[in-house]
Amino acid sequence: MQLDVPAGLSPNRGGRSVGDAATRAPFKVAAPLWLFLLSVSIIVAAWCWLATPVPLGHAPADLAKRLDCVSYAPFRGHQTPWNSSVVISPDQIAQDIADLARITNCIRIYSVENGLDKVPELASKVGLKVILGVWIGRDRLKNASLIETAVSLANQFTDVVSAVIVGNEVLLRGELPEAGLREAIRSAKGRVNVPVSYADTWDFWLRYPELGHEVDFVTIHVLPYWEDVPPRAEDAPLHVLDARSKVALAFPGKEIFIGEAGWPSGGRMRNGALPSRINQARFTFDLLDQASRDNVRINLFEAYDEPWKRQWEGTVGAHWGWLDGESRQLKYPAGSAVSNYPFWKMQLGAGLGFCVVVFATALLTRWRSAAPMAMLRWLAVAASATVGGVLLGVSVENALYESYGFAGLIRQGSLLIGATLLPLLCTNALMADRTLPAFVELIGPREMRTRSLPALLLGVVLLVTILVAAESAQGLVFDPRSRDFPFASLTMAAVPIWTVTLLSRRKLPVCATSEAVFAGLFAAAALYVLLSEGIQNWQSLWSAAAFFLLGGALWRSRSAVLSGISGTPRAAQLLTQV
Questions:
Q1: Which domains does the chain show, CATH number per domain?
Q2: Fewest CB within 10 A of the end CB: N or C in the chain?
Q3: Confidence band of 55 (pLDDT split at 50, 70, 90)
Q4: Are the beta carbons of 56 and 286 closer than 8 angstroms?
């Protein structure tokens, strides 16, 4: 990277004597060194705290052996049930079923399409029971065909198929009226020798109590994370059992089967509900432990993570599995405590390396520059290095989990690259006593464009980061359900921008309208996020603060970002129009 070196400045600038320089030299060396050591200490302490494992009452793998039943879908990678032409091979299904037979007695499937009609035959070879599901929707002819297939399988594999569930959340999705659903259930119930049910969320069963006459048992879904007012993970098991009790009161004499209960290991917060590895393990253990004491049947949702769900539900949709979707292994090793950051040592190492690079950039720039220096600039460098060192590992992990498809990869990758480069570029600008370049210096009239390579590079990275951040802000306003909070990357970017804005600011009589527009956008988005997400959601609070910080930096710099532009009459005339 080419660094600015102000010309015509001598080491003795300002009339300082050699004796004064010698007296100040130890301080100049000691201050950055102590700040560097402090930054490193904070990064190490933060990661040791973040990665602290939480011991559970029992090892998660031991708990898994007690699973009564678990939801299973075979889709891996880019395989998706929405593509009717995708047929999962029997070998792939057989591999999964063999692994699941070691941790559960039963699996629940939701369809007989995409190769899933082979599940009963394959399950019979490993001694697994199957709750057979029929995925019905608006197409009644297709519904009849799928029900026919399910009936045939239930009658053929009588020692494997323990129940048939006709329809999954059809009423919730509004794909069939109650009368159409009744007709579908009846068409299967009279032709199989196993119990028949319908599955929907617990509150929809309370809305349609007459459905209880059509089924042999009531299958309810209770996913506390998706409730209108989601509880915290610590309170979620009790919420599940309370919901079951309410349904039991509405359907006396009917068995109430919890067909789905689970907690995600990753994704955005909703109110106080935090998806995490620790919370998933704790929720599952506490729920199944209480259910075993109360003799309540529960089907755990779900066996494997399903990456394809990110397209419809965001990051959280792909992280409900008890087993990893890629490795197909249990997420939690037997006998060990659970940590939210199993690769924390790598993340810590990356953070420490990043801290070193930021301080090295500052030292190199300072060595080649004779710009006035103050302790505040080193404090600003330490702030950028510390924040980046702590959050880099979190930002990289979030980008990997949250990227889906080409657009998601570009969005997350651009934000991560910007968040990584801005601390370095802003440190260089800070130590060289340069202001933030204006957007008009990058894309404005030729007379106003900057000719400084460092300023141009900083400006391009800044502009790209602002554009991606603006897209994220609008996503949280107009499509909040499937959008994650970019709190880590935004903070990494906002802090160094603020350091340059505060310490390299020069007052000019001209404003940059584009910076003001973005500042207003970020402020409005932050206010909306605060009002819509609630005060229990620390991810939303943090993201809103980062948006405010970013917008505030742009607003504060709107009268200073043009300091590098030549003061020609033509430029001055153009600036008054910006």
A1: 60-318 (3.20.20.80), 393-575 (no CATH)
A2: N
A3: confident
A4: no
